[in-house]
Design goal:
Length: 88
């Protein structure tokens, strides 16, 4: 798994921190199955280490995502995000 993108955290415990991330866009079928709609772009952001963040926003490639779900294991964290178009 490549951690070739950088995520900037905003309005949460890690405010201003930039960390390597693997960003995967969810397909329409998977979005419908997990969330029940496909109107907004949803992504899964995987990090190399556990992250202590539950809510807030992160920015990757000039797109801002609102954190909707956090899954943390002993070694890694995965954040589910939905594209956010408001002001921060």
């Amino acid at each position: 798994m490549r951690f070739n993108k950088r995520a900037l955290f905003r309005k949460n415990d890690l405010d201003g921190e930039v960390v390597p991330v693997n960003l995967t866009s969810m397909g329409a079928n998977q979005q419908q199955l997990v969330f029940g709609n496909v109107k907004q772009e949803r992504v899964v952001a995987r990090f190399q280490r556990p992250m202590s963040v539950r809510t807030g926003y992160f920015t990757v490639n000039d797109k801002t995502y609102q954190i909707t779900m956090n899954i943390t294991s002993e070694r890694r964290t995965a954040l589910y995000g939905v594209e956010y178009h408001g002001r921060l």
